[in-house]
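Page 47, continued from p. 46.
Same chain as before, 350 aa.
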Amino acid sequence: MYAAQQKKIIILAILEILEKHTDAEHRLSAKEIIDRLDSEYGLAVDRKAVKRNLMDLIDFGYEIEYTEKPRTGRQGEDATIYTDWYINRKFDNSELRLLIDGLLFSKHIPYSQCKDLIGKLIGLSSRHFVAHVNHVYSLPENAPSNKAFFSIIDMLDEAIQQKNQVKFNYTEYGADKKKRLRSASSGAPIEYLVNPYQMVTANGRYYLIGNLDKYDDIAHYRVDRIANLSIVEGSRVKPHEKVTGGASLKRDLPKHMAEHIYMYSEEGIRVTFKAGRNIMSDIVDWFGLGFTVKELDDASVEITVIVNERAMFNWAMQYGHSVEVMKPKSLRDALAKTAAEMAAKYQGVD
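Result:
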């Protein structure tokens, strides 16, 4: 009985050594594995037993790589050296760094949960990877967050899959920097009855795309600002086709996202603006490739795009030094009025 138990411990210890210490850039010889079995687990194992257990792990389906080298002057089983053992990772280090950076730049995941997720991702690589992610410890702890974020994601996903309506309150911040439920003039918290259609990420945040049931248009809700969520069992969602913009949402989500770059809910309009060629990459980043380009001169182009008007107003203000909106006139006039008001604020100040 003891011998059988010992064999199980050895194979598990070898697997743990590979997972902890090896990757494609850091490999172990059979002797190094033997030394670690002794120093870390107190197990005395010979070279043949190590090789046998490693081959068993490969037979069990573990992606373990190694190198075969000829041994000079030897024949038969001893004629080949099996060395440079390492476990083949599902994610390489560059892919893990990309996933970790995505968490670091997210604006909606609570600090403690973000740290836990990053720890799990780090655990998918060897100990050598830790040195490459020291920047994890600079995570800001004072960012606002919703501690129920992941449970809300799960519930919304379930409601979308089951085609059930949801009810929730919506939070906002006051001048005291404290979160409170959005309330009616009476002071009572507003309860939203929503038909949930899709969850998306935009500008580093999660959004629920749905329809506020008493209206007939599409609405966007920040998931991290949803509170007191519940699924309305037996209450079926309003079909996409009965909601203004809903049919196109179901048909072409990327187009919907490009038209709602700041996740405002109104339908898109046709906007024409002049822009410097030097911000073409920024334009593609924000609007995708669903716009037309007319070349004006060596320095500028004319862009025509379908986009939400409020979103375009904010975007044009952000890129004001490089952009001039030409049409529609209502948007151009609104930008001119706001620019004049801003200029007046900064005049005559020492």
